[in-house]
Amino acid sequence: MSPRYACTANPAPELFNTEKLGMNSDALIKDFKRYYGTHLAQDKGCASGHYLYSSLALTLRDRLFNRMKHTKHTYAEKQCKHAYYLSMEFLMGRAMGNAVLNLGLEKETTKALNELHLNFEDLIEMEHDAGLGNGGLGRLAACFIDSCATLQLPVTGYGLRYEYGMFQQRIENGFQVEKPDHWLQDGNPWELERPEFTQRVKFGGHTEYHPTDSGDMKVHWVNTNDVLAIPFDLPIPGYQNGTVNVLRLWKAGATDEFNLEDFNSGSYTEAVAAKNEAENISMVLYPNDASENGKELRLRQQYFLASASLQDILDYWVTTHGESFDNFAEKNCFQLNDTHPTVAVAELMRLLMDEHGLGWEKAWEITSSTMAYTNHTLLPEALERWPVNMFGRLLPRILEIIYEINARFLREVATRWPGDKARLARMSIIEEGGEKQVRMAHLAIVGSFSINGVAALHSELLKKGLFHDFYELWPHKFNNKTNGVTQRRWLAWCNPDLSELITDTIGDNWITQLTELKKLEAYAHDKAFQKKWHAAKLANKQRLAKLVKDSCGVEFNPEAMFDIQVKRIHEYKRQLLNILHVIHLYDRIKRGDTKNMTPRCVLFGGKAAPGYVMAKRIIKLINNVASTVNNDPDVGDLLKVVFLPNYQVSAMEVICPAADLSEQISTAGKEASGTGNMKFMMNGAMTIGTLDGANIEIRDEAGAENFFLFGLTEDEVTELKPTYNPRFIIDNDADLKRVVNLLESGHFNQCEEGAFDDIIAAFTSPNDPWMTVADFHSYVEAQQRAAEVYQDKERWIAMSIMNSANSGMFSTDRTMEEYNNDIWKLEKINPRF
Ligand SMILES: *Cc1c(COP(=O)(O)O)cnc(C)c1O
Description:
Its EC number is 2.4.1.1. By secondary structure, this protein is α/β, with parallel strands linked by helices. The protein contains 33 helices and 25 strands. The longest helix has 30 residues, at about 50-80. The radius of gyration is 28 Å and the shape is globular.
């Protein structure tokens, strides 16, 4: 730590009193004016939105930081157990609306701004999304910490402060084009830099063993290239309860002496280059969703997060409890969001042994009783493995520890299953044969006392398949925690019209007790209520239609069925199946088969990983089909198709309230949970979906009659696989045959010969892992059922109400209660602010 931040002065105690700031419009106006006129020194002539936005953000932030300090003091006073959520991604989106809602300042803020002749919505729109995540996994982390604060659980999030978040997607000539997302360009008023808590993270070098006075060996990791980790704190407010937790994000920086050495030897430019190398660690988020990357920089990022966070936590422990770690495990718990931060298992061992002098047994007892691991996917391509060579070069001490963990673990396996060599090889943390690899999932399982999947089916499949050996060894470690979403952002904030109707009808307890929505069932067939429900949906559809018009130039008729699939573009999510159905509808229209056809507006959105060629081709196909369909005078208002560019959290806030039909059509057994499905359900959309991930639970809750089910089950997929013959299916399905003929004839190619050959080859291959063709017929039938029901307005609205009414269990408040009851076991703390 720089001496600048050492505690030197001893000021009057009153300096540390937390001032209670006014929560009415007058107080807000006073602060807003001071920020605008004095702090930001804005003058007459021009009122740029940026400074107005900043002034409001700073006004709110003061109120958040006061509560954050107070919450922290309360936790310290109570000496309560604390959980830490370690995640490489936090897909936070915008902070302002959430701050206003959770501070209970909606009315007063609007009033204050009106008095200043300003519009709240305009300021909201000024904020750049914090896109520090890829998709579901990162958004889940954001919903989790929101719910923890609302439940008053002492939970801190730890992540990376990427300079560049998820890329901005543009569509040019139908192709995805990636633009860097320099989200911090105009500053970030929601963060507070805390240089006084800077940590040092080691890379490279080698280990030396020195005997201590007591005769033990002490390990020194020396000759390292150190990088500084500088924390930035973001306030995470609970819902109107005085609690504000912390999300601490690390930025990488160069150490002083590193630069100084090179500078003294006269190589100024090398010194600057070295600085760059250090700062690179937190420069950019890897834009791969559900596939591993394997790049050394990614491993650097992972260790940087794990090491900085654990050092920070241990420093806090030592300042509050001294060097005894006897009850550390009673007071601390770490939740690993997928394998990304799993190197924390070995890092905690290192810190406890090498830095705090504990022996192996004691350190292992602490580590293996404080680490908990959440698995997010069964896809083999997502399982992280690091080449042992690279690992050893970058983190030599950590690799030694992993080898020791593995040796002891394999002894346990050998004792349980004597002579079972194959099992040892399967379970080993080190994969032999070819280039040796460290299997991060195995390290996570061995090092954790809890392993959970994210939906009922997913957790069962983990035990049955991927982690079966481990389940046999440690059945007690395995559990399920079905995902959720926070209803504060995904209903209360993003759908004000519907929220108001719900609150007028059943009161506002649903904002913190989502199962209260069940009371809406009584109104599902109430004509007056239905009318209001429909009016809210229509207004939301108009809002989305405007967004579509502005960004795609296509007119969506709000009376038509809004059929929506937004999520990362991935073959397993089967956007391809959806577009094949669109082509089928287009084909029907061209053939004049339009009797009783339900007009539809189909919206796609989502980003493809920049290196994922097939996913990018699918985007191109969607865009080409869209332009053919939208420009064909025969089609008219019966069918519209758009690909909405740059799908992100703030876009979803407009999209999910406006959906009639939510597309959740992954190949059964491939989607771990899904959370987009839950946002749609909460906002009264009907799901068309397979029995996959949380869809199964959604259907159980909504009732089978309020869900459009189609497709093979996971068992059927497995069973069909060996004899799968898509060409045969196509030849025997007239609808599908015409769709494939249109594609093969180049009808959507727009003068680009062979543009979709790879796509055709993929879905017609007997080895197609996603079995798109197998589900086509069943999908078209389900779509037809949905289209027919949509024409029966009253029935559709009743079903819409039933979906919302039964979405209670998909709140992350429920999910977090379960994590806490089964894994963390934290005491809820009310800071009474
Ligand atoms: C909810 C959400 C996701 C996850 O969607 P799935 O359909 O579950 O894959 C991804 N990205 C954003 C921006 C989201 O809001």
